[in-house]
Design a protein that fits this description.
Largest sheet: 3 strands, antiparallel
Distance between the termini: 43 Å
Helix content: 25-40%
Number of domains: 1
Radius of gyration: 18 Å
Strand order of the largest sheet: 3-2-5
Number of strands: 5
Low-confidence stretches: none
Strand content: 5-15%
Length: 158
């Protein structure tokens, strides 16, 4: 039996806030279909614009340090989506991978965490180490120039 780890389709699920709220997730899917646009809040229909905000006083672990305006897609074979559906709801869209790749779609690195991983070199410890390195680099660069504690940038597709 051949096990596939990637898919020819990328899936966007709409239930991140509450995966068990089928009614709200279905309504969210209907809004996306009516707008003909999958977008990141504040849901501007100028798709393809990529930017991010860095809040230097926030935490990477809480996903508040770097806030991108990107949408997420699961690169998981259809037959393996059940775990993902439990986390992000039953409603979503699928797009051919080849359609999204030219617009910058790419894999994301996820770091699994557990409550008991604080003494390991992975998980929460890795996230905290990455944050310390990132903030240390920023402090070094900031000391050489004047800059605010919030940075907003636009990517190459804007």
């Amino acid at each position: 039996m051949k096990v596939l780890y990637t898919s020819t389709e990328l899936f966007h699920f709409v239930g991140r806030r509450d995966p068990s709220d089928d009614r709200a997730n279905y309504e969210n899917l209907l809004k996306i279909l009516a707008a003909s646009c999958v977008s990141h809040p504040p849901h501007d229909n100028n798709w393809g614009q990529v930017s991010y905000t860095i809040n230097w006083d926030r935490s990477l672990e809480k996903e508040e340090l770097i806030v991108p305006t990107v949408t997420c897609y699961a690169d998981i074979p259809f037959d393996s989506l059940s775990v993902h559906v439990a986390k992000y709801g039953k409603f979503g869209l699928s797009f051919p991978r080849d359609l999204l790749i030219p617009y910058g779609a790419r894999p994301v690195m996820y770091i699994a965490t557990r409550n008991d991983d604080w003494r390991s070199i992975h998980g929460t410890t890795l996230i905290r180490d990455l944050e310390a390195i990132y903030k240390g680099f920023y402090a070094h660069v900031k000391s050489k120039s004047s800059s605010s504690d919030t940075t907003t940038s636009r990517g190459p597709w804007s």
